[in-house]
Amino acid sequence: MGRSGDTRERIVRASARLLLSGSYGSVSVDDVCAAADVRKGSFYHFFPSKAELAKAVIDLHADALLERLAAASGDTAAKRLHGVADAVGGIQAGFEATYGRVVGCPFGNLAAELSTVDDTVRDHLASAFARWEHGFAAICHQAEHEGVLREGVDPDRLAHSLLAHTQGRILLAKVGGLSATDIAATLHDLIDVHLREGAA
Amino acid sequence: MGRSGDTRERIVRASARLLLSGSYGSVSVDDVCAAADVRKGSFYHFFPSKAELAKAVIDLHADALLERLAAASGDTAAKRLHGVADAVGGIQAGFEATYGRVVGCPFGNLAAELSTVDDTVRDHLASAFARWEHGFAAICHQAEHEGVLREGVDPDRLAHSLLAHTQGRILLAKVGGLSATDIAATLHDLIDVHLREGAA
DNA sequence: TCGGCAGTTGACCGATCGGTCAAGAGAGCC
DNA sequence: GGCTCTCTTGACCGATCGGTCAACTGCCGA
């Protein structure tokens, strides 16, 4: 035809869904096509390979995440940091509501499974993580300038630490069958312990 | 026989190797059999399924880890905590030396990939994580009794936090192509920020 | 009006997947 | 010696995997 316009998007969104409720290995191209109501030939018109689809899904999530994180600027660093924790918790709570349990971080899941398998996907994930971490780092530097960072705390290392903690905490919730509501709480703890006493 | 005796062990060790350099989905039963020099029928004599093999690999790593963590008891809590950080870093450095890069945590990798796919494997991983966390918690409680914990820090939550941080930090090193040598350093940071000033 | 081209379709491919099975082979026990 | 039980073998299975292809369809610009 070809008519359409939204075929590619339907594929990406359907596979984003499937990848969250399963894994890269457990989701076949046929599964994706069925979920998106698209024939396989059409799929391969838009994506040269299954791995390329994964990258598109990564981009989808990365855009959504950065948009959400950029929302709360123009506030104090402490509030922004806690806002990030709430945002992460909110996203995970949304996933939990949709899928019935904590299904992990879209980046972290693919990173754990594919980093050692496909270098191009790993690069894609690495840059998504880097952008995420830079967003954290900007807030941490703001905190340093505001003087609310505990002495000896390096803002860049704190940003890295926050990201690591986020990933690890989500993973533990996923494997342990824990609720998403506690994820934000532990992130708040981590933030507070790095701030001076009395900094909200 | 049936001669042998070490066939099962060879299978488990070979697949532990393959699972670290790849993923559960990227390693086939045929791969495992070839690496262990075992025919497929023999494999299925010892393991009813591929998933059951994964559980055996989990047990292998869990035993090795707990043995390593139990080594440094009878010291101050602060030293023991830092000892745990060094142990984790040492394990990862060993993997890095063997595989040429950081390949992730054996538990974390499988947890991310299989938690949403196979509930029995997820249970297995959850109990491995729980034992690990309990080991951490024991040291954190010791730290509390020694009075070296910063005020407001809950030992159980700290143990959970340490585990989460460990997992996240290893994942970031894996996807970012970072060196394993820095993993221990960030864990030391996290421990120090939770201890009172002056506590070694 | 017509040609080209993005999009679509469904049939098809070889490879590989996890798993099965009947038959054999050797150690240990009687 | 012979029985049994564990282990081993290699051939085999249907299903599914990621990916290809030639043909078709309809919009759009010339």
Your description of this structure?
The radius of gyration of chain A is 19 Å and the shape is elongated. Chain A has one domain (49-194): Tetracycline Repressor, domain 2 (Orthogonal Bundle). Chain A is mainly α. Helices cover 74% and strands 0% of the residues of chain A. The longest helix of chain A has 28 residues, at 119-146. Chains A and B meet through helix 6, helix 7, helix 8 and helix 9 of A and helix 6, helix 7, helix 8 and helix 9 of B. Chain A binds a DNA duplex (30 and 30 nucleotides) through residues 1-4, 7, 28-30, 38-46, 48-50.
Task: Spell out the key features of this protein.
homodimer, 200 residues, mainly alpha, Tetracycline Repressor, domain 2, 9 helices, 0% strand, DNA-binding
Quick overview of this protein structure:
Two copies of one chain form a homodimer. Chain A is built from nine helices and no strands. Chain A is an all-alpha fold and 200 residues long.
Low-confidence stretches of chain A: none
What is the arithmetic mean of pLDDT of chain A? 95
Decide which structural class fits the backbone of chain A: mainly alpha
Q: Whole-Å distance between the termini of chain A?
A: 59 Å
Tell me the series of helices and strands of chain A, N- to C-terminal.
Answer: HHHHHHHHH
Tell me what portion of residues of chain A adopts beta-strand conformation.
under 5%
* CATH architecture grouping of chain A: Orthogonal Bundle
- According to CATH, the fold-level topology of chain A is Tetracycline Repressor, domain 2
Inertia-based shape of chain A: elongated
Give me the count of strands of chain A: 0
Instruction: Work out the largest interface and the residue count of each chain.
Output: A-B, 47 and 47 residues
Q: Would you identify the CATH H-level superfamily of chain A?
A: Tetracycline Repressor, domain 2
Pfam family, one (chains A, B): TetR_N
InterPro entries (chains A, B): Homeodomain-like_sf, HTH_TetR, Tet_transcr_reg_TetR-rel_C_sf, TetR_C
GO molecular function (chains A, B): DNA binding
DNA-binding region (chains A, B): 28-47
